[in-house]
Amino acid sequence: MTAPVGPMTLHWSPRSPYVRKVMIAAHECGLQDRIQIVRTVTGGTTPHRELMRINPLGKIPTLELPDGSVLYDSTVIIEYLDTLHTGPKLFPAAWPDRLLALRRHALGHGMIDTGLLLVGERFRPAETQSAPHRALWEDKLRACVDALEQEADALAASGFTIGHLAIGIALAYLDFRFEPMQWREGHPRLAAWHASFNARPSVQANLPVDDR
């Protein structure tokens, strides 16, 4: 696949943490001006037939390239964008740095997945919601935050990668959707690291918006 010679089109929503990952990554790579965004509503129980013609999963983010190629999901899109610039890479090339970045990404991305399960449960009829599942997902999120508190100093001391991006977005999603969880309590080092994450221009340029 060759580099695009025209603008890329991103199917986008201001609420999606996965889309936010892509937008922040594009900014970090200096590519934000080469991406056109298209508001695309997915989820719920109504299939998005038009989107499914180019992405059969019918999910966002989906990136259309000038040559007609289509990329999904967020991780694939970001790794592609990371090939289009000459600055510091979000995906380190050399081991063990790459392995560390990928492991951190797996944790952050998994937290987002878990958070979305909890959000989805809210929209189910009350009589069909599962208290044991909610408790399990909440416990997993708390365990992740506890683990990240132990890793916060190492995060702060290492260069910004896809792992930092995913973890930063995951914690921001807890603020966005689960403010009562108050994850910063008892996690001062992680809170300090996340404040530095939030101060990045790429992050400030792509804040989540609940326009439901």
Write a compact overview of the structure shown.
With 212 residues, the protein is an alpha+beta fold. The protein has helices spanning 17-28, 49-52, 74-81, 97-122, 131-157, 162-177, 188-198, 201-204; strands at 8-12, 35-39, 62-64, 70-71. Helices cover 51% and strands 7% of the residues.
Structural class: alpha+beta
Total beta strands: 4
- Ranges with pLDDT <50 over ≥5 residues? none
Mean pLDDT: 94
Distance from N terminus to C terminus (CA atoms, Å) equals 37 Å
- Helical residues, percent: 40-55%
Figure out the total of helices: 8
Tell me what you see in this structure.
By secondary structure, this protein is α+β, with helices and mostly antiparallel strands. The protein has eight helices and four strands; from the N terminus they run E-H-E-H-E-E-H-H-H-H-H-H. Helix 1 runs parallel beside helix 3, helix 1 crosses helix 6 and helix 4 runs parallel beside helix 6. The model has no long low-confidence stretch (mean pLDDT 94).
Fold topology:
Blueprint: E1 8-12, H1 17-28, E2 35-39, H2 49-52, E3 62-64, E4 70-71, H3 74-81, H4 97-122, H5 131-157, H6 162-177, H7 188-198, H8 201-204
Parallel strand pairs: 1-2
Antiparallel strand pairs: 1-3, 3-4
Helix pairs in contact: 1-3, 1-6, 4-5, 4-6, 5-7
Tags for this model:
212 residues, alpha+beta, globular
